[in-house]
Amino acid sequence: MKIPFSSNIIAFAATKRRRWTLFLLSGALLISIFFLLFTNYLVKELSKDELEKVKVVADAYEQLNNPSLGDYTKQFQVIRSTTIPLIVADKNDSVSLYNNVDTAKVRQDPNYLKSLIKKWRFFNKGIKLSDYQYIYFEEKDVITLLRFYPYIQLLLIAIFLTISYMAFSSSRRFEQNRVWVGMAKETAHQIGTPLSSLMAWVEYLKSSNEPAGEEVIGELEKDLQRLQIITERFSKIGSTPELATYNLNEVINEGIDYLRRRISKKVNIYLANEAETEVYANINKNLFDWVIENLTKNAVDAMTGVGELKFNIRRSKGFIVIDIKDTGKGISRSDFKTVFEPGFTTRKRGWGLGLSLCKRIIENYHSGEIFVKDSEIGKGTTFRIRLHEAQKDSLPKAAPKFEIN
Questions:
Q1: pTM
Q2: 328-339, pLDDT tens digit by residue?
Q3: Class in CATH terms, 236-398
Q4: Domain spans of the chain, in order of start
């Protein structure tokens, strides 16, 4: 069952969006849990040290109410030496003692101490001195900051996720636009050659007083067949292409022979077979021919209609290696991988989706490899294709579903 190209794009985009959303949410959740646990641990450790100091002071206050001691010098020294703000109050927050508290504010506001108790009690319940009295204390600022730190971090993570999602959505829309633009360019690029040829033959027939000969009819048939092949290529998007064993010399020769008569006469195209014998591979002929056509047209464009294009075939350890070398303007090393991305282009036409399709056809559907072998600015570029060699009588086999993502 064929799946429309638009459905593939929508399904791919939705899947990719769900994966990224799940990834970001999972990452944020793990980070949040880690820091919540870590900060809670720090708060407990710091609070434990603070609490021990307050307990020493609380013991001193309790001993002041013990008439059997007689000498309270040590207890007063402990109380005076502490720098922790303290308030001793009953259950009704009626204050009996306080220490290290701003006395000026106490005199100005009768409820100042009660407000401090409420504030301090929010973070700790204080220490029980007796059935009626409690000692409340102010914890260090660093502990208070640590208590709020996880929530501040959660807010920052939420902001980060929002910005990341917006950036991803924007990137996704941009990528989809690149694919659509590339597909439109590739469609025009594909039908351009046979359509231009047919128009030229029509003009020739109009201006000629003689009936069309066998050569003209043969070329017209080739152009019509090419349009049919192009239709079949695009119809395979969303379907499962079949692979069969073909002689690569014949397939490549057939492709470049058709193109040779429809491109600039100043471009010399030829095939060199270093293997010196027939070489076979399991391919889908129409799709593989699409790769040869795209690479040829890109090379002709890069050479601006003047130069040499050489196809070289050889065997190498169970593989068939095809080098496509042109004498064009070359590609910078930083763009060796970028040229295969959808929408990449250095000129008004070509390389919008063509090389991306070549990569998908060769690597995903023929289990091969295509890459820029080498290139030099102003001298030319060599693309390399590697395919598994097949025996002449090997059986056809199914390839993965042909989709453009």
A1: 0.51
A2: 999 999 889 888
A3: alpha beta
A4: 5-144, 236-398
